[in-house]
Design goal:
Length: about 160
C-alpha cells in the first residue's frame, strides 16, 4: 500500500479554494467585500478600489496586496499603511490593536483605519458556487492608475 512522503505537500483540491473577504464598518454602514484582485487601494478618495467613508481616513490610507504561497497553491494578503509612493497615512493602521506599517493578514484579524473604520478579514474554504456569486466584487482600479492630461501627451511643434 503506497504511503505519502513527508516532503510532498498536500495541495488543495479545486473545491477547497479559499475565498478572502473584508467586513467593513464605516460611516456608510456594514458591507462585505470579496477579495480576488492582486492589489487594492483603500481610502477616502474616489480613485481607490475600496472607498472608505470617514473623515479620519486619509485620501489614500492603505494598500492591500495579494502574496502567492507556492507550497499550497493559495495566496494570502498583506496590508500596508500609506499610499503607493510610500507616504504613511495621517491616522495610521492598527492590526489587532497594535499600530503597524505592514501586517500579514490572518483569518479573523481586526484592522482599524483612522478612528472610525473597522475592518475584519476572513478566509473561508469550500464555498458553494451560489455563495461565491452572492458576494459583490469590487470594481478593480489599478493602484498605478494616474490621471493624464490628453494634451500633455502630444508631440511639440506639431
Amino acid at each position: 500500500m503506497p504511503t505519502a512522503s513527508l516532503s510532498t505537500p498536500v495541495l488543495p483540491q479545486a473545491s477547497q479554494q479559499q475565498q478572502h473577504f473584508l467586513l467593513i464598518e464605516d460611516e456608510k454602514g456594514r458591507r462585505v467585500v470579496n477579495l480576488d484582485a492582486a492589489a487594492y487601494s483603500l481610502g477616502r478618495d474616489t480613485t481607490n478600489s475600496i472607498r472608505l467613508q470617514s473623515s479620519s481616513v486619509s485620501r489614500q490610507h492603505a494598500l492591500l496586496l495579494r502574496i502567492p504561497d507556492p507550497t499550497t497553491r493559495q495566496y494570502r494578503y498583506q496590508i500596508m499603511d500609506g499610499n503607493a509612493s510610500g507616504q504613511p497615512s495621517r491616522n495610521g493602521l492598527f492590526a489587532n490593536g497594535q499600530r503597524t506599517r505592514l501586517h500579514e493578514l490572518h483569518n479573523g484579524d481586526c484592522l482599524n483605519l483612522g478612528k472610525q473604520v473597522r475592518i475584519s478579514y476572513f478566509v473561508r474554504s469550500g464555498l458553494s458556487p451560489q455563495q461565491q456569486q452572492s458576494l459583490p466584487p469590487v470594481q478593480f482600479r489599478s493602484i498605478k492608475q494616474r490621471h493624464t492630461d490628453p494634451l500633455g501627451t502630444r508631440c511639440f511643434g506639431g
